[in-house]
Amino acid sequence: MNENPISKEYLDFIKEKQKKKRLILIWQVSLLIIFLFSWELLARLGIINTFLVSSPSAIYKLLIEYIKNGSLFRHIGISLWETILGFSIGTILGIIIAIILWWSDTIARILDPFFVVLNALPKTALAPILIVWAGAGVKGIVVIAISISLISTILAAYNYFINVDKEKIKMLQSFGASKFQILTKLILPANVKNIINIVKINIGLSWVGVIVGEFLVSRSGIGYLIVYGGQVFRLDLVMMGVFVLAICALLMYQAINLIEKLIKR
Amino acid sequence: MSYPIELRNVSKSFYTMDQELLVLDDLSFKLNKGEILGILGPSGCGKSTILNLLSSLISPTSGKININGDIGYMFQKDHLLEWRNIIDNITIGLEIQKKINQESLLEIDLLLKKYGLWNFKHHYPHQLSGGMRQRVALIRTLATSPDILLLDEPFSSLDYQTRLQVSDDVYKIIREEGKEAILVTHDISEAISMVDRAIILTHRPAKVKSIHNINLTVQGEKSPLSARKAPEFKDYFNILWKELDYNE
Ligand SMILES: Nc1ncnc2c1ncn2[C@@H]1O[C@H](COP(=O)(O)OP(=O)(O)O)[C@@H](O)[C@H]1O
Ligand SMILES: [Mg+2]
User: Fold this and answer.
1) Of A5, A41, A34, A212, nearest to A123 (Cα)?
2) What backbone torsions phi and psi does residue B204 show, to the nearest 5 degrees?
3) Most CB atoms within 10 A, among A82, A164, A231, B71?
């Protein structure tokens, strides 16, 4: 690829970049260590109230305990399952409805004001109603998770679909393409990237729905751990729940990034 | 005798809530067998609308359009689909018409080789230059074996050098494959160098202002490049220039 031998200046440039990258990483790790260390120290010295903020070592001990007796994985498994169900059903259903709206301008215009109102409504306000309708337990929680991402998915996907270049549609029509062919050969493939972005957003929203749902009704799951810990004033349990939640959400996000890279190739 | 294309008293209006926009006003003309017909007119006068009518993307408000043969439409922009490689872009028309077979694929291979795109068969559009992309778009149009080509300012997005080269290629393809074509352009030189007859349109609503036969004395085989050296070229240019100068 390179016709010229690599110059010294270029090597210096690369070195400089890498040095900067290392420096930033070192700072990030140090900040984290300093934070955890001073938290622990202040807790042990009794300067901060461990009853309110717990301490890193207590959280760690609890984490090990939950891992050893296996209940952590049960809680994670349930929340993870609810989240995956929530965002995949929410995304697929949302896209199917968006396709219907794209297909029929009349339906889109009839439903438009309802979508606008529903979109403006904070969806968590509906959670108690949905629990009553769909029942407590996994079903109700998944329905809450779906409800949080569904409307925004429909609106975003519909917007992407109708903004595909009209001239490209004309090109396909000049070959006699049917509406279904325009959908499968242009509208959907042109929006693969956008749909992945919708999925990313929906994962986050779905976690919100699942945690809210578990707060309300559940006997298990990460949300249950957090709310239970709060009720019995065990802040180490609350903190552990939040920590585990952050890790799970992060891992899921990374998984999607990986899938995105595989699709791009 | 039936013409490849014949328009009789065709009018087209677009309706919006604000207004009724008359774009084509009682238009009549024919495309002769084996002919390349040029359509020249000011921007916004309704040239693309004519081609959209001919390819049945829209229908006329009144009048009759007769078409004998399959239409192939080539646009100003190449409209290649970025997620498909070159060969898959070219076969999209066949795919839509469910006409992919050994024979049609062999024919595409031939066209790819002929127009220097063989080695780029599995490349993606963004890896190609503007001229190459436009050639791919042309092969995509030719792949469905149309009898009549509609070209809507197909070279106007290319730089001057590429434009001369690609228009030369396109001209040769049309002649070699023995097709008819309608070339919409606002470039007078391009029109004179390529077409057998030129129709000048008025401002919107478009009417036929005048029709000019283009007869050039060219040594050897005619091509858009050699046509530009013909002694009559300048005269035609002046005539068409005057016809198109609406400020007088
Ligand atoms: N679908 C449409 N609806 C309303 N007006 C249109 C539509 N298509 C074209 N027009 C109008 O018709 C006129 C002619 O357009 P067009 O045929 O694209 O012009 P040209 O190709 O000669 O530049 C323009 O004023 C344009 O705004
Ligand atoms: Mg036009």
Assistant:
1) A212
2) -60, 140
3) A82
| Mean pLDDT rounded to a whole number for chain B | 91
Q: Is the peptide bond before B146 cis (omega within 30 degrees of 0)?
A: no
Give every CB contact of residue A68 below 8 A, 6+ residues apart in sequence.
none
Which of A124, A111, A121 has the alpha carbon at shortest distance from A155?
A111
What is d(CA B87, CA A92) in angstroms, rounded to the nearest whole number?
Answer: 31
What the block records as the tokens of A36 is: 């955890």
Report, as an integer, the average pLDDT of B28-35: 93
pLDDT digits (tens, 9 = 90+) for A175-220: 999 999 999 999 999 999 999 999 999 999 999 999 999 999 888 9
Nearest CB partner across the interface for B96, out of A165, A168, A181: A181
- Picking from A231, A229, A257, A251, the residue whose alpha carbon sits closest to that of residue A242 is A229
- Tell me the C-alpha to C-alpha distance, in Å, between residue A88 and each of A81, A150, B51, B180: 11, 10, 44, 52
Q: In the block, which residue shows the tokens 């999209």? A: B92
Tens digits of residue pLDDT in B201-221? 999 899 999 999 998 888 888
Query: Which residue has the least CA distance to atom 5 on ligand 1?
Result: B14
**CA distances to A159, A171, A246, B103, B221 from A105, in Å:** 12, 21, 41, 40, 53
Q: What is the pTM of this model?
A: 0.87
ipTM over 0.95: no
Assigned CATH for A61-264: 1.10.3720.10
Q: What is the structure's pLDDT at B248?
A: 45
Q: Does B83 touch chain A (CB under 8 A)?
A: yes
By the 8 A CB rule, do B117 and B136 touch?
yes
Side chain identity at residue A246, one-letter code: A
Q: Which residues pair with B82 in a beta bridge?
A: none
The residues in B 84-143 lying below 8 A from A, measured between CB atoms, are 92-93, 95-97
Beta-bridge mates of residue B11? B62
* Closest C-alpha among A166, A196, A192 to residue A102: A166
Closest CA to B94 of B103, B83, B81, B104: B104
Edge-to-edge strands of the sheet including B197-201? B71-74, B148-152, B180-185, B36-40, B197-201, B208-213
Contact (CB, 8 A) for B177 and B142: yes
